[in-house]
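To the wet lab folks,

You asked to see what we're planning to order before we commit. Fair enough. Below is the target structure as tokens, and below that is the sequence we designed to fit it. If anything looks off to you, flag it before the synthesis order goes out.
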């Protein structure tokens, strides 16, 4: 099968979050399974060009219709982690992708509407006819609209679209001038509640809604989050649209790149281990304590790794820190703040506990250190208010670090409670709580710390259960190929 990924990010050359990991990881899995995969990205000025091999211009004369005229583009080709990538570079005064940042511009809607059109124009003019075009998030939401309403009449009638939503919060809501820019025109047609009209503003176009309505199949990044998006406020206004199109909507759990996250081969940890040599994990625990100036003591290490963002349940993370120190545990935090205000709150905490022998806060992103934290910690806390998929808990499981998570999104699909799950004992992997309050966090941590201290054999079983779970891209790759095959023959 021939698949083209169209996205605004791909790890490691252009990435702000999990989207880039998915585009690269899923593409790799599809190729391993014998499929031809190509990725189309914008050619940003701030890409990691040192991670692109053999970058060269492959198409020098692409004219993309725009506002009744056309914008001249060049298309570059290079390999990223072995993946075949095309980078679209528009030559215009708009300087769409030379802004020094990926997102956050006033004209983001125009920038990515242009990218969607340019990607289709490139496929058309280069004679590429993929079986499936896989689009990601709001930035490519207009592509299936353009394909169905325009490009299928100009030589692309058989292409099918799978559309994956990673984040429902950002939907690409813009004014109707987008329709004129892309050549769709006819606002009276598209600004209809069955097509592109935003569900909360009838005068606005919603890119993500367009992607849902016009794609052949829509996915999000975990089965639980698919349910939440339809039936709770996690859909951010798109619940009704998802229910209308429920027959072509499902959740597919993201995978984890075990080439990057595997304690058996991890070059960032001093002592490698697997399920058969898990005792070596405790040597990494010693190394973590030595690096962070924590005392060597008979206590579990509870960790938080990730962004310091309101989504992550910041008051509950703070509460977990205090609970740990008061109940026979140590606490390690590794995270970067999303705002100055949040950063200052955690810097105050850091100053308060700077000399505490059982606590360390490392503020800022440190990819190398994160490997050691996963390897050296006993427990990982994730009290997220919402978590579409989550990678931290999957990493923790692989490293034998038992997750303590809130029952939300992908956390529900990957962590099963030691005491209350209906799964067989061999499939139980952590501690789960439901309410987003201090009492719920305390209850789960009480059970976790208590099991570590009083029933070490049972705690070891949880560790090993998690390490033996398969959260690689294998299952997701198989599921997506089934979906691709379904929409090809529908």
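Sequence we intend to order:
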């Amino acid at each position: 099968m021939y698949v083209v990924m169209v996205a605004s990010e791909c790890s490691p050359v252009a990435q702000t979050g999990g989207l880039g990991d998915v585009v690269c990881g899923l593409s790799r899995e599809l190729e391993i399974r014998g499929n031809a995969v190509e990725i189309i990205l914008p050619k940003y000025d701030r890409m990691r060009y040192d991670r692109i091999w053999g970058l060269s211009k492959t198409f020098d004369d692409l004219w993309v219709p725009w506002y009744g005229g056309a914008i001249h583009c060049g298309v570059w080709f290079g390999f990223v982690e072995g993946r075949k990538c095309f980078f679209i570079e528009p030559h215009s005064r708009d300087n769409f992708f030379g802004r020094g940042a990926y997102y956050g511009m006033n004209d983001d809607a125009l920038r990515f509407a242009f990218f969607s059109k340019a990607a289709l124009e490139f496929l058309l003019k280069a004679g590429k006819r993929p079986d499936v075009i896989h689009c990601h998030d709001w930035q490519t939401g207009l592509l299936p609209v353009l394909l169905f309403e325009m490009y299928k009449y100009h030589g692309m009638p058989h292409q099918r679209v799978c559309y994956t939503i990673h984040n429902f919060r950002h939907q690409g809501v813009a004014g109707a001038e987008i329709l004129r820019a892309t050549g769709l025109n006819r606002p009276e047609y598209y600004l209809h509640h069955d097509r592109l009209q935003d569900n909360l503003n009838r005068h606005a176009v919603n890119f993500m809604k367009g992607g849902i309505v016009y794609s052949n199949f829509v996915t999000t990044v975990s089965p639980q989050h698919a349910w939440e998006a339809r039936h709770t406020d996690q859909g951010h206004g798109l619940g009704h649209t998802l229910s209308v199109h429920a027959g072509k909507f499902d959740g597919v759990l993201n995978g984890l790149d075990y080439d990057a996250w595997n304690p058996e081969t991890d070059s960032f940890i001093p002592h490698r281990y697997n399920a058969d040599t898990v005792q070596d994990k405790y040597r990494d625990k010693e190394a973590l304590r030595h690096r962070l100036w924590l005392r060597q003591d008979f206590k579990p290490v509870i960790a938080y790794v990730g962004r310091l963002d309101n989504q992550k349940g910041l008051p509950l993370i703070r509460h977990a820190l205090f609970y740990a120190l008061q109940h026979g545990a140590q606490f390690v935090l590794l995270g970067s703040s999303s705002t100055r205000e949040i950063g200052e709150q955690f810097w105050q905490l850091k100053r308060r506990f700077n000399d505490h022998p059982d606590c360390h806060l490392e503020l800022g992103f440190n990819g190398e250190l994160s490997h050691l934290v996963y390897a050296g910690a006993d427990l990982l806390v994730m009290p997220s208010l919402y978590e579409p998929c989550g990678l931290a808990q999957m990493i923790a499981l692989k490293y034998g670090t038992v997750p303590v998570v809130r029952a939300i999104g992908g956390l529900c699909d990957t962590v099963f409670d030691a005491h209350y799950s209906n799964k067989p004992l061999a499939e139980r992997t952590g501690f789960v709580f439901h309410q987003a309050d201090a009492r719920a966090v305390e209850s789960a941590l009480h059970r976790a710390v208590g099991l570590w201290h009083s029933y070490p054999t049972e705690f070891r079983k949880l560790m090993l259960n998690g390490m033996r779970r398969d959260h690689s891209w294998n299952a997701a790759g198989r599921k997506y190929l089934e979906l691709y095959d379904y929409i090809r023959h529908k």
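Structural context that might help your review: The first helix runs from residue 18 to 32. The chain has a mean pLDDT of 96.

Thanks,
Computational group
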